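How a chain folds remains the central question behind the approach discussed here. For one protein, we set the task of working out the structure tokens from the amino acid sequence alone. The sequence in question and its structure tokens are set out directly beneath this paragraph.

_____
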Amino acid sequence: MVAPRFAEQLNIQIGNEFAAHNQYLACAVHYDALTMPRMAAFFYGQALEERDHAMMMVQYLLDTDADVVIPGAEAPVAHFEDVVAPIRLALEQEKRVTEQINDLLRVAREEHDFASEQFMQWFIKEQVEEVATMSDLLAVAIRNRDDVEDLEDYVAREQGGGDTDPTAPRIAGA
């Protein structure tokens, strides 16, 4: 049985994950409009990852017979001054999500909800990867802000599709 306090906070996080999904869509559209297909594809992929994270959380709540509440999300930032701004925003977002995930783990521990603590471990690992990816991408974007082809080449070379993680939680509806 999932701790009620954890379930409440996880439902809030579902909304945060969908908000991140929407923000990454807005970033992808920005790059699509600039005819930067590799950056657009990267951010469309990031959007799908965030949606999947939300749906993993939904599945966990379903599996533990907890109520699932899909909260609304605010509209994302949709206008950016240059090619660097969406990445800077994405890094800030990933750092914020890391804090949210850490807070969820803390709640699980405080509630002695060991199953939920174990569930959150995968997300802890995932956030380390996400912050590192966005930090690296931001550094490259700052260096290449005036040469978008180099930025596109970096994304094509370094951010190719990764393998599926067999340790990832199940995704609701998948």
